[in-house]
Amino acid sequence: MAAAEEYDFVIVGSGAGGGPLAANLALAGHTVLVVEAGDDHDCPYYEVPIMQAYASEDPDLAWNFYVHHYDDEGAARRDPKYVDGEGGVLYPRGSTLGGSTAVSAMVTIYPHDDDWQRLAELTGDDSWGPERMRELFTRMERWRGKDAEPLPGDTPADRDRKARHGRDGWLGTTRADPSIGGREPLFLDVIGAMEETSRARYGIGEEISLPRDPNAADTTAAYQGMTFVPVAVSDGARKGSRERLLDAQRRSDGRLTLGLNQLATRVVIEDGRAVGVEVLDQSRAYAAVPEAARGEEGEDRGTRVVRARREVILAGGAFNTPQLLKLSGIGPAQELAEHGIDVVADLPGVGENLHDRYEVSLVWHLDRDYPLFDGSPLDIPEDGRSDDLWQEWQQDRFGPYSTNGSLAAVIARSSVAGEDPDLIVFSLPIDFHGYYPGYAKDAVANHHSLSMLVLKGHTTNRAGSVRLASADPTAVPDIRFHYFEEGGDGFERDLAGVVDGIELARDIVTRVTGAGLTEVIPGGDVADREGLADFARDQAWGHHACGTAKIGADDDPMAVLDGDFRVRGVDGLRVVDASVFPDIPGFFIASAVYLVGERASDVLLAEHPVEA
Predict the structure, then answer these.
(1) Is residue 590 part of a domain?
(2) Which listed residue, of 15, 33, 313, 418, carries a Cα 20 to 30 Å from 440's Cα?
(3) pTM for this model (two decimals)
(4) What is the CA radius of gyration of the chain?
């Protein structure tokens, strides 16, 4: 950390919200400190896209939260992912430069226009509207993928103009090169099954080339059918908030300081205004450090205060931002009093409204191995040489290791959906059925598995919470999602939508003809909708937590923020991360949080112009 202890802006968290915001402010001419509890850890698990699961279990990259899906212990223990010693289900988050963008699956799908329109109407601010948010996405995107074929009657130039892809932004995005799928006959068979299902179910004629581009501006919100999967990958390597920060640091003449291995413990508030952040100068100080790294915490060099001349911005994510707000006296008065914390602002919505998507996985075993994986551990080889796929990535940044493992998806509308599709189903050639300790190794223990992931978007459950377990800032908060029945009214709709997605996944797999398949999760004996609903209740999970410091109208007592991210009742303090969403946007949340960071940059630079 630089010698100076005062900056224009202090930003807590380097992920999808805080990273772009910090970079933009520094490049505009402000001095910025990013407080990050992790280190800058660069390794193949971070860089190689196919290694995404290992990244989320790397103790140098991740924190392990264990969350409650149910308060009812009997319901909780029906999930085979439940970990007795931890009392919950693993929920990995990033703790490194780049935050959770360093451990995510890199999927970068633009949200639905209605997600932004609802925020524009809620706040009365058209700059939240779909046209402006699309402009921000174009500004941010550096698209290098193979485009979808033009629609009938369009030329490639027409396609490019209508798609409105950004080519010059900072976030490198692409798709798996179609030639990679062509190297594995079984991959081609799965891709063909998705195409066949799309044409049969949704009446897509042969004159329309598949897959389509889910991020093209002219792919209508109502579209159902096969798409490719855009990912934050460029030149065969992961891209995210880390790369944006490091680039901005190089180009900002010392204005951007990365305060690594610094745990934010409290926002310093004087006379009703946030003026700085108290930080604990110690690596691996937080209790979510994975078991493999426990006992390896660095030297405790004590706490100190870093001050902000202009504003403090919290971007720690849906779990850590509400925890830090509460530790700073901002939150429900009764809860703060229970932990002996003086109340600065009584905001009952802090830590409430926690919600997520529901996801389930169906797994089949094939009657043969994927020939493409022959001789590969699907891991970093111990000798660094024996794996041909690893060698291909090292030499050319190409091949299966340059992908996140998913080549195509089907977007669909469930029987309970509103106007926008609420299901996305995609395949992985591994055994992935959720998060638990050791899941990354288990996923590749054999080379004959096919997983079909079902993600149910636009969920209705808002009953989750993040509450303090202790006033100790190194302690992990109590995180409870209250799945399905525990979430209250509307759970039947969510559950029915998940079951619709399961049935769609099974329909796709019935069209895979290149190998014999045996369903092992949930198994062919789970045949009716009631049985599938029980399976979803027991084994669903999520990994897009949001909503715990939501934007809301002035007359909403549970609103924590206004439309410009300001924390109500405290001057000079904002939140810019997944906490801000009153309703979960789109399918995969990373792109929406990146856009929140971009919009916050415009808001702050308009209010705090750089002095000439």
Answers:
(1) yes
(2) 15
(3) 0.97
(4) 23
Please tell me the total count of domains within the chain. Answer: 1
Give pLDDT tens digits for 354-410. 999 999 999 999 999 999 999 899 999 887 667 899 999 999 999 999 999 998 999
Q: Is 143 exposed, middle or buried (0-12, 13-18, 19+ CB in 10 A)?
A: buried
pLDDT tops 70 at residue 57: yes
H runs (alpha helix) in 125-260: 130-140, 156-163, 178-181, 185-202, 241-251
**Taking Cα atoms as reference points, which of 16, 4, 9 lies closest to residue 576?**
16
User: Exposed, middle or buried by CB within 10 Å (0-12, 13-18, 19+), for 411?
Assistant: buried
Q: What is the pLDDT of residue 386?
A: 73
- How far apart are the C-alpha atoms of 356 and 586, rounded to whole Å? 11
- Residue 536 CA to residue 456 CA, distance in Å, equals 11
Alpha-carbon distance 29 to 89, whole Å?
Answer: 43
Beta strands in 22-68 (DSSP E): 32-35, 62-67
* Predicted local confidence at residue 2, as pLDDT: 46
Look up residue 572 and give its amino acid.
G
**Max Cα separation, the chain?**
71
Percentage of the chain surpassing pLDDT 90? 95
Residue 554 is assigned to a structural domain of this protein? yes
CATH number, domain of 579, equals 3.50.50.60
In a domain, 35, yes or no: yes
Residue 537 lies in a domain: no
